[in-house]
Protein 1
Amino acid sequence: MRIPLVTEIQRFSLQDGPGIRTTIFLKGCPLHCPWCHNPETQDARQEFYYYPARCVGCGRCVAVCPAGTSRLVHHSDGRTRIELDRTNCQRCMRCVAACLTEARSIVGQRMSVEDILREALSDSAFYRNSGGGVTISGGEPLYFPEFTRQLAGELHAAGVHVAIETSCFPKNRETVESLLDVVDLFIVDLKSLDPRKHFEVIGWPLAPILANLEMLFAAGANVRIHIPLIPGFNDSPADFDAYVDYLGSRAESITGVDLLSFHSYGEGKYAFLGRSDSYQYSGVEEPPAEKTMPLARALKNKGLAVTVGGIVGIIDSKSELTDGDILEVHQ
Ligand code: SF4
Ligand code: SF4
């Protein structure tokens, strides 16, 4: 069984399904969404953040690195800083252990199913009282199907509501099918309904994703759809029409649709991971509510429950919503 690293266990989360939840972020994803705001969950391997502001230029990391990735540079302002080239990094993490100021920190901890269960089940009382549970997220949980199945199964057996956040990418249907009896809620990220764009921009075909979705619908699974609204990628009238046609024709099988506007909060993490060059959305602004509302309204008119930005009923004087457009809560 392939065991993923865990980047974070987020307790008391209110965003990732109903009630109070614990969200488990697994590290590793086969898709390459260029807007990803959790870049630390893309690469399945361990890596480290480097925070220049915390670096005192002591050189301890330079001394222990077997790959010669770091060198001390004396600057005209009198400070000494590290210049870091990760090209030959062996991911040994000796530099992190050597750093006394926490200018370097490991991304991705090794945890067994038992470790995660111990932590997740400690909040069982909150789940019971709030109608919450545990959400397995990423990265992409289905990149580690046996692990995810085992974790979901143990949680389910303990009486915990289990949600999974996934792009439903697997090409073999059995991977998703195997979760039907242990997952209570599938939150499926549907990034585009244009096969060409999906493949060219994200690097993965759309067809298996739709086939898995259809399987979930046919099985009567509890499915929510997440649509990340990305400027210039999936926010044209043609994109909106495609979402409305597809999701509208399956409204009875879908618990709700969450429209999640692009934001660039993850940009700093690209820098701390040494991957600033790969971030293409620097300076791109979050779309205004007016841009999202036509899609929200059209989906609602098809009988779908819709949230915008994970917030209930975004209604302000600037939006064109009327009383009849009140949006619904995550269920
Ligand atoms: S993790 Fe990379 S940069 Fe750090 S000591 Fe090891 S090889 Fe050097
Ligand atoms: S060990 Fe830490 S504080 Fe010292 S030079 Fe390296 S990163 Fe900076």
Protein 2
Amino acid sequence: MGDVAFSCSCGAVKGHLVDLGRKAGSRITCYCKDCQTAARALGRGEVLNERGGAELYQTTPAHIRIDQGEAHLACLRLSPKGLMRWYADCCNAPLFNTLAHTKLCFAGVLVHTVAPEARAPLGPLTAQTFTEGATGAGGPVRKYGFAKTGLNIMRRHLRAKLSGSASMAPFFDKDGQPVREARILTREERTAARPE
Ligand SMILES: [Zn+2]
Ligand SMILES: [Zn+2]
């Protein structure tokens, strides 16, 4: 099915989310403090929604193709155990999240990288997670879909393994090593970027 263009904020990094069938991925909004801290540490807190949520399209790396600007791909971690948070070093746009290893075929795409009018193939919002981390006024944000999210991640992982599409490029090489060394925030940097 369709391909969807994404780009960093300045346009130096461009690519496509490819082969987006219904089972390719699902949209969620994560309100956890770590997602917020990562965006804020990059000076890009405005990519979060008005309640601090990070809108993500959870998929597998095989659906992510970087067409240009790959040299700008960089990686940040909040701690030595944290997720790998891939961003564009040209404009500090958060782009993708992966685990730090290749055991689970998973990647999350930050939806702000896709033009609003091009998002339909990403499907409807299926979950709102860690909503206790929501910021701002307006009462509690409804929490739903967390278990389904985990199940979908496992299903996509298994399908990728069975279909031979479990390559972890563009994030890891054939030996399972990340293509960039992650910069790990210091405790001070992490504390400074953490929302209230
Ligand atoms: Zn950029
Ligand atoms: Zn999160």
